[in-house]
Amino acid sequence: MSTLKLMSNGDLTIGGLGSALLSLDFSTFSYLQNTELEVSFFSKKSIPLISDIIMRLRIIDATTGDEVIRIQGIVDSNPDNLASIVAVADATEEFEQFELSFVVEDTADAILLSDAFNAANSLGRNKVSIPLDDEMVPPFDADELVKTLTKLVDPPSYLALPVADNLPLYVACLQAAEKFNIPLDVELDPTITAEQVAQLSESLDAQTHRVQLIWSPILCRPRDAVSLRGRKIPATYIGQYIGDKLLRNAQTNAEGYAPIQKAVAWKDYPFKKKALELRPDLDLGDEQTLEILAKAKVNVVRPIKFKQGVRFVLSDLLTQKQSENSALRLVPAAEIAMRTSNDCVAILKENMLRPTDDFLKDTSEAIEEYLDGAVTAGWLKPADDLGGKPYAFRLTPDKDKPFERVRLYMARRPEGATRTAIFDEDVLVK
Question: Which residue has the higher pLDDT, 113 or 260?
Answer without folding.
Answer: 260
